[in-house]
Amino acid sequence: MEPNLRNAEHLGYKDAKANGLIESGILPLTDALYGRKCFPIASCEGHSYKHGYFNSIMDLILKKHKPSYNPFVMFTCSMGLAKELSNKLFNNPALFYAWIARATFNPSIGVLVWTLEPSDYRLAGGDVDIDKVKKDILQLSKVVKNL
User: Fold this and answer.
1) Handedness of CA 80, 82, 84, 87 (dihedral sign)
2) Residue 32: what pLDDT?
3) Integer Cα distance of 22 and 30 in angstroms
4) Is the C or the N end of the chain the one with fewer CB within 10 Å?
5) What does the DSSP assignment read for the chain?
6) Residue 39 near residue 83, CB atoms below 8 Å
């Protein structure tokens, strides 16, 4: 059952998808999760804003700095499925970045929420390689479909 987020502003997955609220780059993964009876709550396809030294200084002066964002999907699912997914992520040679499924209890909705995200030292400086992220997301959607 899809979680009740107790928030009139938050649409269910089908409505969010129908209204174009899910970024196209993460959609294959959110669709794969939804197809496995997982319920995506929030997601980001990842964004990279590369700055040279001069542009970084100008961005700070003009207050236009845009940080990089790592991709992620927050979702609910069974403990068994999350465990199986975590096992498939561990040292997966088909993925460029190291990915994890991290659990957090959300007291406002009373459920365990999983966040599928990269956990990779290469992303620590905010340098997100969007092409590699896109390939990883497609690979992750295959992993989820095959669980």
Assistant:
1) negative
2) 97
3) 9
4) N
5) -----S-TTPPPHHHHHHTT-S-TTTHHHHHHHHHTT-EEEEEE--B-----HHHHHHHHHHT-----B--EEEEE--HHHHHHHHHHHTT-TT-SS-EEEEEEEETTTTEEEEEEEE--GGGTTS---HHHHHHHHHHHHHHHHT-
6) no
Do strands 39-44 and 72-76 pair parallel, antiparallel, or not at all (unpaired)? antiparallel
Q: Are 71 and 115 in contact (CB under 8 A)?
A: no
Cβ atoms 31, 141 nearer than 8 A: yes
Q: In what order do the strands lie in the sheet with 39-44?
A: 39-44, 72-76, 111-118, 99-106
Confidence band (pLDDT; 50, 70, 90) for 106? confident
State how far the alpha carbon of 118 is from the alpha carbons of 14, 24, 72, 98, in Å.
Answer: 25, 18, 7, 6
The pTM of the full predicted model, rounded to 2 decimals, is 0.81
Cβ atoms 143, 36 nearer than 8 A? no
Cα Rg, the chain, nearest whole Å: 16
